[in-house]
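Hey, can you fold this one?
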Amino acid sequence: MAPGKCIHCGLDLGASHDPGQGPFCCHGCRTVYQLINETGLERFYDLRPGSLAPPPDLRPDNLAWLELMLADPDNDLGDGLVRLRLDLQGVHCAACVWLLEQLFARRSAGRSLIINPALGTVELMWDTRLGALGEYLAEAERFGYRFGPPRKSRRRGSRSLQIRMGIAISVALNVMMYSLGYYFGLSPQDDGPAYVLFGRLSFVLSGLVVAIGGWPFFTSAWRGLRRRVAHLDLPIALGMLLGYAGSTVAYFREGPAAAYFDTISIFVALMLVGRWLQEWVLEKNRNALLESGGIADLYARRFQDGRLRAVPAAEIVGGDEIWISPGDLVPVDGVLMRSDAIISLDWITGESAPQHREPGEKMPAGAFNAGEQGFRVAAVEDFSDSRLHGLLRVGAEQREEGRGWWHKISTVYVTAVLLLAVGGFLIWSGEGLGKAIEVAVAVLVVTCPCALGLAVPLARELVHVALRRHGVLLRSGSYLDRALRIRKILFDKTGTLTRGKLMLADPSRRGLLALPAAQRGILWNMTSRSNHPASRCVAAALGLAGGATDPDGAVLDPRADGVREIGGHGLQWEDEAGVWRFGRAAFALPDGHAETIPTDRTFFSLDGNCLLGLTFAEEMKPDARAEVASLAAAGYEVHLLSGDAPGRVLEAAGELGLPAARARGGLTPESKAAAVRALDADDTLMIGDGLNDSPSFDAAWCAATPAIDRAVLSHKADFYYLGDGVSAVRRTLQAAGRLRTVQRGNLVFAAVYNTAAVALCLSGLVTPVVAAVLMPLSSVTVVSLTAARLAGGRSTWMS
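Sure. Predicted structure:
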């Protein structure tokens, strides 16, 4: 592996790479690399292509949906065998397929596994008597893959386009074969029957190609006319119809040798290839992530008839008792029962700090179980009345089309071509109807935007490929056009610019490591037995610093099993030295001192004497500061909008180098959406990852989300991205700019070519046959220029 590349996914580490990550671009790559080597699956790297998209950071899935599928009699084959068709996220190449197959083969209960990486689906057969299917799915999840209920299907339009393309190509090649005879001297005198037969076959088969292959362009052009829009498909459709009509006239007036059915047929086939390529790219990107079913994707476990049963969250009603496993979402407002709980509200309020709840306290809908113990909640409302019901509702997927610069250019182009064709017809009408039609057809054929019809999809495909190599997948066909208008970039904070996890501030980290080895060992023994985020942060810091293996006492002490975790206060452990405490000031320090100490610090004490005070901060993503600075330097107006406490939002803004005036905290989902609407002038890009960002996505001009474990926003996003950073935002904006530059170059070439060609047509020097020869030559030129400028310069413009 070349220096400066991640040794797992192969992506460039970049100037903003955190040296603490080692030779990995993100934590996900480090984890998966270690797992692959620990499990003896190193051949994955032999099968892997040059680079992969980095794996997302996934929360564990409770697999409640799997319980319902296993209980479905339609999936039961008898004798414990089940056959399931599941959606699959994270498969990028043959190496991914091989790895999943190897993990499956190691399970004695596995019977068969068929993976379709193109659709992102898997069909498997499993013997439930020999093992739990959930164990295999959980193991695959550790490698960055995720399964879900079957929601993906090949879009009907895409399938129809593929069939039409296959028919058009095969028939067009036959027409080409028949036409070769005329090019090599087939004549009515020497080859009478063959001359007539080949002409008739070319006439009929090319008509079939135009009818079948041209239909998508005819319907698109007609829809545009009904909306009074001069769509780029209009001259393509006219070129197909009039080109075929002109060739037909030549065929009946002058014979088969004068017709150009082969050129028209190949033209139609190539147009279909370009259209299919454009649709295929978007479908491939959509299939890379689990399809969001909105409300249908949310499940819960309800106590029913003395048993715990998985049910769709939509069936929850007031009075139900539900069980919330670690990582699960609370589906409705409820009351906590029996045990304490640690919850996270970052998806509904954006607040990053986990909160402690005691029995009898309210549990808001949308809260996550942030601890490692489940808890019971009594629902106080029906799911239909829950706030989540509105936030999870799947809305329209497509954003407004047709307002980009390319649409305006195509409108001018189409109008000019039609006016020139009409003008040519009128100019030559005095020479007879036949000559006037010949000139008009020549203008339409020679200027028909087949070059642009091929070059535009090719350019977009090359841009999509370059972005995909960096873990960025576009879902919207119009985003690259709309992105050119973006001037304001609005970031959510928690989970978008930050990792949503706590980290020690630098002074606190130094103080922690300055503790005597014995005290470090005691603190590690206490915190390593707690699931609280602050405890996990301290334990991880001590472990990474060698505290867990320190010979002076920082080894796991079995006596520390007596550590007590007092909900809402902290940890306590007693030994011969005294009472050790770790927690809030009021808990860890004597009352007389706690009143004068900041409440935002956590303390480690012995018998009330302070040994250490720690300050926690949210952990920023490694490239966040550099990327925000890069966007600001490029002239974009960067804002921070969050539901987290205003103080923490201002602190994050300061760390990112943003002015306080552009950082707003304490926003509800509705007030955040209102802030977006106030800023938006069809020029905003909103980036978020939580349920509270859903209304903001609806209000923004463009939207994006990280490819997280629960893709509730993916159906509203123009693009989503993988990995541990936020460079995807800059990359998509760069890609849009580069695409526009290439397209402008193509337009300049087309303008020069069309000016000369139209002048010749209007002078009567170019017949439809000559125009049909010039048309593919211009196409080859434009396509070659596009490929050279995008594929060749990828390493520069995507850096």
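The longest strand covers residues 609-620. Let me know if you want another pass with a different chain boundary.
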